[in-house]
Amino acid sequence: MAKRIDVSGLSAFYGAHKAIDDISMTVEPRSVTAFIGPSGCGKSTFLRTLNRMHEVTPGGRVEGKVMLDDENLYGSNVDPVAVRRTVGMVFQRPNPFPTMSIFDNVAAGLRLNGKYKKSALNDIVEKSLKGANLWNEVKDRLNKPGSGLSGGQQQRLCIARAIAVEPDVLLMDEPCSALDPISTLAIEDLIGELKERFTIVIVTHNMQQAARVSDRTAFFNLAAVGQPGKLIELDDTERIFSNPSVQATEDYISGRFG
Amino acid sequence: MSHAIQERPVSVAPRRGPLSHARLPRWTPAAVAAFSIAAGIGIGLAAGWHSKVQWGMLAALLFVLTTYAVTTKVEGARQAKDRVATSLVWVCFVLAVVPLLSLAWVTISKGMAVLDVYFLTHSMNGVLDTEAGGGVYHALLGTIEQVGIATLIAAPIGLLTAVYLVEYGGGKLAQAVTFFVDVMTGIPSIVAGLFILATWNLMLGFGPSGFAGAMALAILMMPVVVRSTEEMLKLVPNELREASLALGIPKWRTILKVVLPTAIGGITTGVMLAVARITGETAPVLLLVFGTKLINPNPFEGAQSSLPLYVYEQYAVGTDASVARAWAAALVLIAFVMILNLVARGIARWKAPKTGR
């Protein structure tokens, strides 16, 4: 099911402000691609253009093409809602629905889309929670509110919720930045398992994490504050961290600037 | 190390470091309050002041001053300021609560005189206003129907307006709507009544009815519902909306199934407060519902009564019996609003997002 993402000439705007400029890259299916770069360089913005969440922000606007296999996400007849069913997303801060139980949280995507069989729902929830390595911890309290879980559990619940709708691509926006090292490890292991089934794109500020989980790494940078962010280079993670082809990447990775 | 700490003799007074200083015992504020009240009463009696308000003012003043004097002496100037601020807060709290309690007390003590099952289940049909007897049933029924219809009109419109403003609006139209909602909040109830009188009754030629009154009440209720719902919807974290949208859930379903349920507790409370506000409205009811002594269960035809109108009418008659009825009806009105509030709180607590483990 995993699909290839092919971005060409993509720029994103907030009103008149250009946030990212002319980005082209290919994300391979069944792989993990990490985005690294300084704050404000447009990693998250770029990630959000990949499932049309960018335009949810007031004033958000996109130019360019994002091909998912052979369909342009920004084609004139494309329904953003359908795009988001195909390209799922996990956010920086765990955000389970506070009014719903653990079970309902995982089932939310299916239920609220109205496309499910009642008999299959239990199986899907169990499968998704197992897929997110959370099943054993919550199987006895599926009817308890999701907000009662710990931060790391909540984030895995959000991952379970995202994979329950069976997307082709999973976008993760700094999924571990609010978590402790043990929860982070659990989620990194999970990413390793999920890449068998999904195309995964992850934004991270943690370079060790990028080195640990990703197959390919993209480095973003911006010329100065207020300038749009640009893709500096995209290569195999090993190459980026050992022998990057651009000096700026090496400076960033080794902690030298300017 | 911990061993050494345990072995330290308990009886030795704690050493004065630069961070510690003399403290007043914990019961000091209570003692000062008791002293001030006693002094207030004593001085008031001695000076022969008739008004108990003067006694109370004196006690409050004494409370603040004594607190300041005692604290300055024992604890120092900074602590004194702190204590004075605290005691001022207490005095203001008491000042706010006293009228409330006395209002409740007066209404209950005067209202209980004629309030019984007979009073609640009978109308004024065949009873002279000047004589004892009769009841409030027709007015209670009228209030319930008028407020119910007003809520049925105003709550959905207000709710949807707020949803538009928070979830969809943002342009010039939303600004204009917000502005007019603010203006509407300040509409005097008599103006709303006159507006319905001019359009519904005079232009379209309908007679007085509960429904006409309900429309005027709906006009008064709508801005309150919009305002409170808007604030509640703004409190829903944007992350929840994004989480839902990112699951491929359409925006309208996101609002219906994620945003509104998260805010439903606050929204219910807001609607109930608006209901409480319009329940006591007299002016539009006087103009449009007209008032009657008979039971008229049909809100769409013929004059009805309502509790505030009933209170006004009975008090205006001025005999002992009618004034007693007015107080009893006022008590029924307060009880009605209070029960609505309790129900709203119950719903809010039941529906509120749960955080337990």
From TrEMBL, chain A:
<dbReference type="GO" id="GO:0005524">
    <property type="term" value="F:ATP binding"/>
</dbReference>
<keyword id="KW-0813">Transport</keyword>
<keyword id="KW-0067">ATP-binding</keyword>
<keyword id="KW-0547">Nucleotide-binding</keyword>
<dbReference type="InterPro" id="IPR027417">
    <property type="entry name" value="P-loop_NTPase"/>
</dbReference>
<dbReference type="InterPro" id="IPR005670">
    <property type="entry name" value="PstB-like"/>
</dbReference>
<dbReference type="InterPro" id="IPR017871">
    <property type="entry name" value="ABC_transporter-like_CS"/>
</dbReference>
<dbReference type="Pfam" id="PF00005">
    <property type="entry name" value="ABC_tran"/>
</dbReference>
<keyword id="KW-1278">Translocase</keyword>
<dbReference type="InterPro" id="IPR003439">
    <property type="entry name" value="ABC_transporter-like_ATP-bd"/>
</dbReference>
<protein>
    <submittedName>
        <fullName>Phosphate ABC transporter ATP-binding protein PstB</fullName>
    </submittedName>
</protein>
<dbReference type="InterPro" id="IPR003593">
    <property type="entry name" value="AAA+_ATPase"/>
</dbReference>
<feature type="domain" description="ABC transporter">
    <location>
        <begin position="5"/>
        <end position="247"/>
    </location>
</feature>
TrEMBL record, chain B:
<comment type="function">
    <text>Part of the binding-protein-dependent transport system for phosphate; probably responsible for the translocation of the substrate across the membrane.</text>
</comment>
<feature type="transmembrane region" description="Helical">
    <location>
        <begin position="326"/>
        <end position="348"/>
    </location>
</feature>
<keyword id="KW-0813">Transport</keyword>
<keyword id="KW-0812">Transmembrane</keyword>
<feature type="transmembrane region" description="Helical">
    <location>
        <begin position="178"/>
        <end position="200"/>
    </location>
</feature>
<comment type="similarity">
    <text>Belongs to the binding-protein-dependent transport system permease family. CysTW subfamily.</text>
</comment>
<keyword id="KW-0592">Phosphate transport</keyword>
<feature type="domain" description="ABC transmembrane type-1">
    <location>
        <begin position="140"/>
        <end position="344"/>
    </location>
</feature>
<dbReference type="Pfam" id="PF00528">
    <property type="entry name" value="BPD_transp_1"/>
</dbReference>
<feature type="transmembrane region" description="Helical">
    <location>
        <begin position="147"/>
        <end position="166"/>
    </location>
</feature>
<keyword id="KW-1003">Cell membrane</keyword>
<dbReference type="InterPro" id="IPR035906">
    <property type="entry name" value="MetI-like_sf"/>
</dbReference>
<feature type="transmembrane region" description="Helical">
    <location>
        <begin position="84"/>
        <end position="108"/>
    </location>
</feature>
<dbReference type="InterPro" id="IPR000515">
    <property type="entry name" value="MetI-like"/>
</dbReference>
<keyword id="KW-1133">Transmembrane helix</keyword>
<dbReference type="InterPro" id="IPR005672">
    <property type="entry name" value="Phosphate_PstA"/>
</dbReference>
<protein>
    <recommendedName>
        <fullName>Phosphate transport system permease protein PstA</fullName>
    </recommendedName>
</protein>
<feature type="transmembrane region" description="Helical">
    <location>
        <begin position="258"/>
        <end position="278"/>
    </location>
</feature>
<dbReference type="InterPro" id="IPR051408">
    <property type="entry name" value="Phosphate_transprt_permease"/>
</dbReference>
<feature type="transmembrane region" description="Helical">
    <location>
        <begin position="206"/>
        <end position="226"/>
    </location>
</feature>
<keyword id="KW-0472">Membrane</keyword>
<feature type="transmembrane region" description="Helical">
    <location>
        <begin position="30"/>
        <end position="49"/>
    </location>
</feature>
